[in-house]
């Protein structure tokens, strides 16, 4: 079987896949043969466009609205996946919220908002999916370079992504032999989701910071792309990665090597 059809017959849930990295992951999995359930928060039109792109590849695609604060979201997403695909072979917990906030400005509401998206949703989505997992499920959590590298005013975001790493290791131990599952985590660095990444960063001070940083990126003096990360995620969803579990792959060009 070629890599182009390495996921033929598989079904995947990719959260937050209406745009950016999630859309790239969903599309790459579909290119390798998987049927895809895309979740979105508010960007329904964008999600529908990605679904149509996947359908043009000859694969099934459905979209489901998935608000992170809605406690019924996990069961609704899983129900849609089972109704359309019969089982869940791949879960990519990509949906995330990244907002800076200085320690003195953190509120209970801000904390809950970040943790609802970055920690609670993947946890209860996985719980809901357990009875419907396929024979060799692949779970990939999308964390962040911020889980291991400290940045100013990111204590809530960074800690939520570090928590996702912890979930990865715990789930690898808990689900491995019981479900024949692998559970891994991918930590991207800054990624360009627009043609000109400077437009994406925006603030001139931030642009200067990132320009200096990427000059020292070990892999290459450039910013990362969504495809750089999507290729790694797709490999972790394949049978070829069967002996890799409980791992964190730092997909950031070597900016955070450990």
Automatic annotation (TrEMBL):
Has UniProt tagged this entry with the keyword Signal? no
**In Gene Ontology terms, what is one molecular function of this protein?**
oxidoreductase activity
SUPFAM superfamilies associated with the record: NAD(P)-binding Rossmann-fold domains (SSF51735)
Kindly name one Pfam family recorded for this protein: adh_short_C2
Extract the InterPro entries matched here: KR_dom, NAD(P)-bd_dom_sf, Sc_DH/Rdtase_CS, SDR_fam
Q: Which family does it belong to?
A: Belongs to the short-chain dehydrogenases/reductases (SDR) family.
What is the designated name of this protein? Short chain oxidoreductase/dehydrogenase
